[in-house]
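TASK: fixed-backbone design
INPUT:
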């Protein structure tokens, strides 16, 4: 290993806690951390597939895809190995999947991702036992590669408006699939362009002349040997994007494509041989797959943020700029309070979202047993929670990654810093798997209904505070519990206001639908306020539970992160607190002082906290964030790899510049 930058070395020596203990805490315990290390070690074991002589930044679009396939095959072979060794419980599957998909080895995403994120979970969640037995062994073993095509060129979030049709033909016992218009072409599905040979297609089901809404169908796209598209299949890639250019997002047109009857996923609804439609017991049973995917997204986003904040904190410890006092040496930019303000919240957010995501997963896992037993009481709550958590997580982390880029100044704008690439990855999460505004409105719909039934039906756990929030409208308390209570009052008040305003509009003659549309800005704000309560309270409660099991040296550090997260958001939502609670100027002054004290206390441990994320340099893939802190050397080394530096004079000089400069053009 090369010599470590002296400033970084000094930072590590002043760390007050055991970094290995924090790493184990962050990744959920010794066994999970051990499994993660095994995965990382295997992934970085010197495989030639992971090495590029020319940096990926100089690849063409086609080269990005081909390099991504090469690396994805190497990485997903590890998943296959894990499965064969019996290491994939559903939780192991979730953790391995989020870690592998977030791997910086496949820097611009993976065309194989949807096979695991959507194709297989759809079969697990919607296929009957016979279909699972037929398809899952092949999918697990990568004998087939799947994608998931729901979004169309003309329709995304409004699923009921999808135009693709699947019409049952009882004479042949087949479904006939069609995309009757240009706007009905499937669009955006990952791996669909050149990679997948099978696909789950979401289409409007028609049988006996009647439409029964959207259902899922397994469609073969390409010949298993030649990979050529099958008759009636029009498939290709949609083109370059801001990020994720190795994901191979594609389009799909279907022209009278016939599939056997048993390729409609029939766990919940069925079409009998004569065309009789058997309705699902509950159309919302498919929410289970959505919750799974959205939890994976949360973990994936945390992986990206951990990388970005590691890069920014290490760079901030190495970079020296300007003087705090005349005549003194230039200071580490981490000594500037504004730099800490930009970055420390990112460290706390990594912990807050990972803990909240784990809690949601555990709750959903327990709830699955109730679901299988026919108890659907908590289904709306779980769906609403998954919706808002995905929306808030992707939105927050997008902003935080951009903060990291800006905090690194001009060097953060370099692709070699990896921060622009990370931003491209996380900002995509704001629109895929449900656009964030729409997801928050779905959460708002649940909250409005809950409020309307608050006196007639028992409240489920995550909204139980709505009944008692009014009792906390008394004296403000500057504590984490006090902040949570204040934010509960804000959320309850916003929901109440939405319900009352919509009621007034309906009474005045406006339709409910129009009143909902007019109130949508307030409704989104109410859903955000509710989700913020869930995140902060879960973070606080779960860390409090874990405190007895961690060392005395680690406890104050964890407490500081919880406090920082709570106080940061109290200050960010000050206008709401001033509007709905009894907080006063003196309380705000104390909050601000508390926040500044936390920035001071966390400062000595900043580098230790990001070291605890334990991200190897090969996966961090950054000139600014490597463990040794050789920032300037790495920037120059990377610059010299540019193809434009391969020759002292580029041909364009003699072809264009010289004639232009000599006035000969």
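OUTPUT:
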């Amino acid at each position: 290993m090369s010599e470590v930058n002296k400033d970084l070395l000094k930072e590590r020596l002043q760390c007050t806690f055991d970094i290995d203990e924090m790493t184990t805490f962050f990744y959920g315990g010794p066994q999970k951390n051990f499994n993660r290390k095994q995965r990382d070690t295997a992934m970085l074991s010197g495989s030639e597939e992971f090495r590029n002589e020319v940096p990926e930044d100089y690849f063409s679009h086609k080269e990005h895809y081909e390099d991504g396939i090469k690396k994805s095959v190497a990485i997903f072979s590890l998943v296959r190995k894990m499965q064969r060794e019996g290491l994939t419980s559903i939780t192991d599957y979730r953790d391995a999947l989020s870690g592998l998909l977030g791997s910086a080895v496949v820097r611009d995403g993976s065309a194989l991702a949807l096979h695991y994120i959507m194709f297989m979970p759809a079969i697990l969640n919607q296929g009957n036992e016979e279909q699972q037995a037929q398809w899952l062994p092949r999918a697990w073993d990568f004998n087939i590669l799947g994608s998931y095509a729901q979004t169309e060129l003309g329709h995304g979030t409004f699923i009921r408006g999808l135009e693709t049709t699947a019409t049952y033909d009882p004479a042949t016992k087949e479904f006939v699939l069609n995309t009757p218009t240009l706007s009905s072409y499937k669009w955006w599905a990952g791996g669909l362009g050149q990679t997948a040979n099978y696909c789950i297609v979401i289409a409007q089901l028609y049988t006996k002349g009647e439409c029964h809404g959207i259902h899922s169908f397994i469609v073969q796209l390409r010949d298993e040997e030649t990979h050529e598209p099958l008759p009636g299949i029009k498939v290709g890639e949609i083109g370059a994007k801001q990020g994720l250019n190795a994901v191979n997002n594609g389009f799909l047109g279907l022209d009278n494509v016939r599939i056997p009857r048993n390729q409609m996923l029939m766990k919940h609804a069925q079409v009998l041989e004569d065309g009789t439609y058997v309705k699902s017991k509950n159309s919302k049973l498919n929410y289970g797959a959505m919750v799974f995917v959205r939890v994976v997204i949360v973990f994936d986003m945390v992986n990206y943020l951990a990388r970005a904040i590691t890069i920014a904190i290490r760079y901030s410890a190495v970079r020296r700029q300007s003087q705090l006092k005349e005549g003194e040496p230039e200071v580490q930019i981490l000594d500037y309070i504004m730099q800490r303000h930009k970055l420390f919240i990112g460290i706390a957010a990594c912990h807050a979202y990972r803990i909240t995501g784990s809690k949601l997963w555990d709750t959903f896992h327990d709830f699955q047993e109730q679901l299988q037993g026919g108890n659907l009481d908590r289904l709306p709550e779980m769906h609403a929670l998954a919706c808002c958590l995905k929306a808030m997580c992707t939105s927050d982390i997008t902003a935080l990654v951009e903060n990291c880029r800006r905090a690194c100044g001009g060097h953060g704008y370099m692709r070699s810093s990896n921060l622009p690439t990370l931003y491209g990855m996380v900002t995509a999460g704001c629109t895929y798997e449900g656009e964030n505004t729409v997801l928050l409105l779905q959460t708002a719909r649940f909250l409005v209904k809950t409020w309307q039934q608050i006196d007639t039906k028992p409240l489920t756990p995550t909204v139980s505070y709505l009944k008692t929030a009014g009792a906390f409208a008394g004296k403000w308390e500057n504590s984490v519990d006090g902040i949570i209570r204040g934010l509960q009052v804000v959320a309850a008040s916003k929901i109440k206001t939405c319900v009352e305003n919509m009621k007034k509009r309906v009474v005045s003659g406006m339709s409910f639908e129009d009143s909902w549309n007019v109130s949508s800005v307030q409704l989104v704000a109410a859903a955000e306020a509710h989700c913020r309560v869930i995140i902060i309270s879960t973070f606080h409660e779960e860390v409090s539970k874990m405190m007895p099991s961690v060392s005395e040296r680690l406890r104050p550090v964890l407490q500081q992160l919880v406090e920082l997260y709570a106080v940061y958001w109290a200050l960010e939502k000050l206008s709401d607190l001033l509007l709905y609670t009894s907080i006063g100027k003196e309380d705000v002054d104390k909050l601000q002082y508390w926040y500044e004290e936390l920035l001071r206390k966390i400062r000595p441990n900043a580098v230790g906290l990001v070291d605890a994320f334990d991200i190897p340099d090969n996966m961090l893939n950054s000139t600014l964030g490597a463990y040794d802190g050789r920032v300037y050397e790495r920037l120059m080394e990377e610059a010299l790899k540019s193809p434009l530096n391969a020759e002292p004079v580029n041909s364009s000089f003699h072809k264009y510049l010289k004639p232009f400069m000599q006035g000969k053009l």
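COMMENT: Residues 337-372 form the longest helix (36 residues).
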